[in-house]
Amino acid sequence: MMGGKSVFSMGNLVLVAGLISLMNFASQENFPIIVLTYAISFLGYALILRSQWKPTLYWPIAIAGLSCLVFFPNLSDDIYRFYWDGALVLKSISPYSETPTALMLSLDDETLKSIYPLLNSPEYYSIYPPVCQAFYVSASLVSKDIASFSLILKSIYLGFHLLGYYFFRRMQNNASTLQGISPSLYFLNPLVLAEGIGNLHIEIVMISFLIIFYYFLSSEKMLFAALGFAAAIAVKLLPLILLPYLVFQYKKPRFFIYLFAFTFVMFVPLLWGFDFIHLSKSANLYFQKFEFNASVYYLLRYVGKLLSGYNLILYIGPLLGLITFLLIIRKSIKTDFHSLWNHWHLGLFAFTIFLLLATTVHPWYVMTIVFFGMCTGARYPIFWSFVIVLSYAHYAGGVYQEDYALIALEYAMTAGAFWLFDKKLWLKVVPVS
Questions:
Q1: Residue 350 needs a FRET pair 20 to 30 A away by CA distance; which of 302, 325, 358, 368 works?
Q2: CB 86 within 8 A of CB 149
Q3: How many domains does the chain have?
Q4: Is 394 inside a domain boundary?
Q5: DSSP 418
């Protein structure tokens, strides 16, 4: 029988083989290949977790990340918008001031003209915050074409993934209570590697900044903690849903002064070409028009159609957003800042509720749940990160058509994993005394 080290090594080989196959042979419309190669990578991941071997993960993470590095993103077309925004900034054009469609009337750039037909949502202004734009510009500065742009941007994301692991390990070394956490759960998760590095979704960078925030928060270094949290917000606005917990429970006024100052500075570039109407139109795309792989929303949409005869997303979307906000506020008030674990528990709750009530749940959205699941010991995020691959069936054959039976199966399996393994997890939180 193989020992823990041998099983770990075998798992890494299978994980890398699966990721290379996924990145090289799969395409968004070829669902069977996606499922097969993703399942292979998950088999390797399962072997890694089963081994219970706890070596330093720098090399395994780097090798797994490199297996996603050399291949062009194949499961998402978001890279074209990243490239477009970076190229615009280099031309001194704000991506917040003009839509791609409007720019095509006056743009004299053959490369961007060839990219335009590949853009999703060309009628909308960029929604990516300034720090994201800084990454896109950096990659554009030293790239010759979109292929080299992809390679450089992936290298940056892999670097941040390794940086996140570095700070997480330091946090573990400083606290004996964190020794039981296995970093493999997040840092070698196939979803995180395939979507974060392979398909360039910046959640992987956002989570690394959150780890930096938690590291300095646990060390009571408020200046650097505020810088890490501000950077996470400036990469992706989603960490704002953690703010109520800090406001109600973290009684450190200086932290909030630092946080406001850093956040303000990071968002100053928005003033270049900024228009609130433009921003609201782009935000409207996500909250009142996009529909993908949802759960509670689809049930309410069905009931709404029965009652009214048409899609009520215009009302249901904002209503679910409000309910999410109120539930997080309630949880924040009732959860004492007793430990870092409580903060992670709140994060798991907040992002889970956010996704369950969202109108759109892309696979890479689950990455944040995987991180908080690692920190709290929850198992359902691991199951969700596997079954979320079913959502790619909606692109099968090159024709977008959602399969509601598979959506029901995805959420039923996730709910089943929660009920079997994690229903008592919520009882561990230390309430306000």
A1: 302
A2: yes
A3: 1
A4: yes
A5: I
CA 138, 142, 147 angle in degrees (round to 5)?
100
What's the pTM? 0.94
Under the phi-then-psi rule, with left for phi > 0, alpha for psi from -120 to 50, and beta for the rest, what region is 377? left
- Is residue 361 one of the residues assigned to a domain? yes
State the residue range of the domain holding 365.
291-433
Length of the chain: 433
Local structure of 243: helix, strand or coil: helix
Q: What is the pLDDT of residue 274?
A: 54
Encoding tokens for residue 252?
Answer: 């450190």
Q: Does residue 406 belong to any structural domain of this protein?
A: yes
Closest CA to 349 of 321, 368, 322: 368
Phi then psi for residue 97, to 5 deg, are: -100, -25
Walk along the chain (433 residues) in steps of 10 and give the mean pLDDT of each run.
Answer: 81 97 94 97 96 89 94 94 93 86 85 90 85 93 93 97 97 84 96 97 98 94 96 94 90 93 88 59 62 93 88 86 93 80 92 95 97 95 97 88 94 95 72 50
